Amino acid sequence: MDLFWQQLLNGLSTGSVYTLVALGLTLVFGVLHIPNFAHGAFYMLGAYVALTVMTLFGIPYWLAMFLSILVIAALAVLTDRLVYHPLRNATPLQH
């Protein structure tokens, strides 16, 4: 029975991650009307930043998650300004 509860929690956590990725893609496409194919790369980079911070600097897990969020948010703002901002006023042919 313990294995059942563990697998149930594993499935719920995996499904939650998939749901967050799908909601992020839907939100970005719904607002900007531009598909963001780098969305998964941001999630992957966030995981690598957290792993690197925890491994190299010995920072606790929750603090590493918070730092990862800050780093990826800064990268997302930079990407928005350099890539998506010029596309907002572009003609549909230029998308």
TrEMBL record:
<comment type="similarity">
    <text>Belongs to the binding-protein-dependent transport system permease family. LivHM subfamily.</text>
</comment>
<feature type="transmembrane region" description="Helical">
    <location>
        <begin position="41"/>
        <end position="59"/>
    </location>
</feature>
<keyword id="KW-1133">Transmembrane helix</keyword>
<keyword id="KW-0812">Transmembrane</keyword>
<keyword id="KW-0029">Amino-acid transport</keyword>
<dbReference type="GO" id="GO:0022857">
    <property type="term" value="F:transmembrane transporter activity"/>
</dbReference>
<dbReference type="Pfam" id="PF02653">
    <property type="entry name" value="BPD_transp_2"/>
</dbReference>
<dbReference type="InterPro" id="IPR001851">
    <property type="entry name" value="ABC_transp_permease"/>
</dbReference>
<keyword id="KW-0472">Membrane</keyword>
<dbReference type="InterPro" id="IPR052157">
    <property type="entry name" value="BCAA_transport_permease"/>
</dbReference>
<dbReference type="GO" id="GO:0006865">
    <property type="term" value="P:amino acid transport"/>
</dbReference>
<dbReference type="GO" id="GO:0005886">
    <property type="term" value="C:plasma membrane"/>
</dbReference>
<keyword id="KW-1003">Cell membrane</keyword>
<protein>
    <submittedName>
        <fullName>Branched-chain amino acid transport system / permease component</fullName>
    </submittedName>
</protein>
<keyword id="KW-0813">Transport</keyword>
<feature type="transmembrane region" description="Helical">
    <location>
        <begin position="15"/>
        <end position="34"/>
    </location>
</feature>
